[in-house]
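ESCALATION

Customer reports they have been waiting on this structure for their group meeting. Please prioritize. Original submission:
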Amino acid sequence: MDYQLILSFFTSGLIGLTLTPLIIKFYRSQGWLDDPQKNKHIKTVHQRAVPRGGGLVIFATVLISSVLFLQLDQYLLAILGGALLLTLVGTLDDIFDLHPLPRLGAGFLAALLVVSTGIGIAYVSHPFASGVIHLDQLQFQLNLLGQAHKIWLMADLFALFFIVWNMNIVNWSKGVAGQLPGFVAISAVFIGLLSVRFIDDPTSFNTATLSFIIAGAYAGLLFWNWEPQKIMPGYGAGSLAGYFLSILAIISGAKVATTLMVLAIPTADGIFAILRRIRAGKKPWWGDRGHLHHKLMDVLGWSKQKIAVFYWSVSLLMGLLSLRLNTLGKIIAIGTAAGFVFLFMIWAKLQEQSK
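Update from on-call: job pushed to the front of the queue and completed.
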């Protein structure tokens, strides 16, 4: 492994580790705390007032580390610009608890900013044959401010959906202390390892290095987010997780299947939550106590630490498999993991109804 990847990971981790207590102190001084005694919600599992603020930690860490290790180009500037927007919205949500729809709108804007620079999913590997499935065939040219911009309709729309989808389903998987930072750090490492094999990187910065920077940032946050947590990721760090992982997957050669593998549990949980809420006549973006981490806690009696380690372990296992499996094998692994989640969630619901 390139020594720069290791150096970027540990440097980013140290920056995150150092910045987090400063953010905690600032949030506490302002009284920006998530107090379960004041803000009662059925999905809440923490018992004492804790600041969110994880978005500021992640963005500041990635920004500083990028300046240290990466060459700025139009792609990195767009990525950081979208990340800044998500961080600002996340900070406002830390303070005011924003409605989900403005957060979703900001997510689309952040993703659109990235896609507009040409970061799209031009192809995906064919699961049943050698070669790839091209998504860049339908193109048209747009003249904007005197400059011609080529738009790949299917490739750009797929990329836009892929980024926004992962921003939301990953954000939903932060219900217990240590859960999100751990599996995001692991996922970013595996995407980084796979991107080393990609020799046609469209960016002038090193995609693998950015992957390890992001992994280090979440590892640094994890130290303070572990139970008993001193800070929570909040919407900022939650949405940035899916945002960064999706973009890394795209620019490292459309590693869509790989990303869905390492995020198999959050993805399956997110799909099940949406279907469950729609079936119950509820709006799919409103939180409840029906996520996988809630059921592991309420039905099986698992501790927060055990739930967090479970999420890490599955991401680690799926990441290791992603290094070996072909596209069809990855699809089978994703389907198997999703099937287990669906079956468990149905069983858990039946157990609760029988009480």
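Sent to customer with the following note: The first helix runs from residue 3 to 30.
Escalation resolved.
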